[in-house]
Design goal:
With 472 residues, this protein is an alpha+beta fold. The protein has 12 helices and 19 strands. One of its GO terms (cellular component) is nucleus. Its EC number is 2.7.7.50.
Length: 472
């Protein structure tokens, strides 16, 4: 516990913390497996100079068997057996486990600590709501709305960039100097051991690590060329840097700061730090890319089909928009028509009747006349076991029924009634890929887009020319 405290609170390496503890309480940690576990937990390489001290006399004298003879304490040996060697323990990082989007990641934290972290997130994103009690327990992350015939016109009125809509799990990430916290849709925090150095060059200061930096993103599962699965966090927004809110800045600035302040220092440290093992972290991280609206055709027809993870559409992000908590009417999502979906609360009522609910003003609202069917992988499932769960459903136009796509274990509440109506409107408007691309081809000819895209291309040309000069 003391070594954990020194590593997390005093930002020591494991080696420094073990030495500090041994100086204060000789001989220090005298169990090899404890030492190995510390290096493994904090993803650090164990130096060859670190050795396990012998069991102290005060410990030996207290461990007597029934004949009054000393008993060897488990794990005291300093042998080189592969099962207790620190390096080999670190190499046993699991690579072939089955990964799913429903996996629970990280370690739970005490409720009082979670409340403190919730308070910080609310104060950054919704400062006017910070003392409103019940509202502090609701996930404050920004949510897009479905693209329909009306809000499609926003693309003509504002300057937008586009990215693919990954089919993963939504998380905000709160980075602190003693670890990172994944924040799920239920506004629950779980700690993961990750390292995010800051741009500070003061090695003796706590400022050398990010503290209270808040990101938004999604966790996806990549299928690698060798068939293995790898978890990756795609960060697409930045709301606070070292406790200072940047949520009011335009997205273009936040996106650039995300790379400059968060990922550049991490990448530099990754290539120069001989102690910390980034490959031991539970998942990889990177900034998600956004592109000019003029690239949407390539994005849909070339990029998405070659992705190593699932994607179900596009996101249109206002380039000049601030970060808007909860529902953001200007943040647009377009899904392939067959992928448009609603998250319902499903219940089995009297007479084995299937009931679909959404939320309206915090209470359940029954959607009379809406049917749901369970097909494919759910065809043989005992539907009664799904009662009370959140199910994501797509719309079968031919059969005029909702079809269960998956169980949303990451959510505890259904969509709001307004969201349900917007998705139905999107389905009704039926903005197909062909319609979307035709509309965008006209939009990018508008002066607002043509002028800014010309400047963007010119800036990219200068950057490439500058890089070529540096290479020479």
């Amino acid at each position: 516990m003391i070594v954990h405290f020194l590593v997390r609170s005093h930002l020591m390496t494991v080696t420094q913390a073990i030495l500090k503890f041994s100086e204060a309480r000789p001989p220090g940690i005298y169990k090899q497996d404890y030492i190995d576990a510390l290096y493994t937990f904090y993803h650090e390489r164990k130096p060859k100079t670190v050795t396990c001290p012998p069991t102290p006399e005060w410990k030996r004298s207290s461990d007597l068997d029934l004949n009054g003879e000393a008993v060897q304490d488990d794990g005291d040996g300093d042998d080189d057996d592969d099962d207790t060697n620190g390096a080999s323990l670190q190499e046993k990082h699991v690579e072939n486990e089955v990964l799913t989007n429903d996996d629970v990641l990280g370690d739970a934290i005490p409720i009082d600590q979670q409340n403190v972290l919730r308070y910080f997130c609310i104060s950054v994103l919704m400062p006017g709501r910070v003392n409103q009690g019940r509202g502090n327990a609701q996930f404050p992350g920004s949510h897009p709305v479905s693209l329909n015939g009306d809000n499609l016109q926003l693309l003509r009125q504002r300057y937008y960039y586009a990215t693919w809509k990954a089919d993963g799990t939504r998380y905000m990430m709160l980075i602190t100097y003693d670890g990172c916290y994944l924040v799920d849709r239920n506004f629950c925090f779980r700690r993961v051991q990750m390292r995010f150095p800051s741009r500070s060059i003061n090695e003796d200061s706590s400022e050398r690590f990010h503290h209270l930096t808040l990101l938004d993103g999604e966790m996806i599962i990549d299928k690698l060329s060798d068939g293995k699965l790898e978890r990756r966090y795609l960060a697409y927004d930045l709301m606070a840097i070292n406790s200072q809110s940047v949520s009011e800045r335009p997205f273009s600035e936040r996106w650039k700061l995300l790379e400059k302040e968060v990922f550049e220092p991490r990448n530099i440290d990754r290539s120069t730090n001989p102690i910390y093992r980034y490959d031991m972290e539970p998942f990889r991280v990177r900034r998600k890319d956004f592109w000019l609206l003029s690239t949407v055709t390539k994005l849909l027809q070339d990029f998405i089909p070659r992705l190593s993870h699932a994607a179900d559409g596009l996101i249109f992000q206002g380039w000049d928009d601030p970060y808007v908590p909860r529902t953001h009417e200007g943040l647009l999502k377009w899904k392939y028509p067959e992928m448009n979906s609603v998250d319902f609360l499903f219940e089995v009522g009297n007479g084995n009747r299937y009931l679909l609910y959404v939320f309206e003003r915090g209470t359940k609202k029954l959607l009379e006349g809406n049917r749901v069917e369970f097909r494919d992988e759910y065809a043989d499932v005992d539907v009664s076991t799904l009662s009370g769960k959140i199910i994501e459903c797509s719309w079968d136009q031919a059969e005029q029924t909702w079809v269960c796509m998956r169980i949303r274990v990451d959510k505890s509440t259904p969509n709001q009634f307004n969201t349900f109506m917007k998705v139905k409107r999107s389905i009704s408007d039926n903005i197909t890929e062909e319609v979307l691309l035709d509309e965008i081809s006209q939009i990018v000819k508008l002066p607002m887009y043509a002028d800014r895209m010309a400047k963007a291309h010119q800036q990219q040309h200068h950057q490439h020319a500058h890089m070529e000069k540096r290479r020479r």
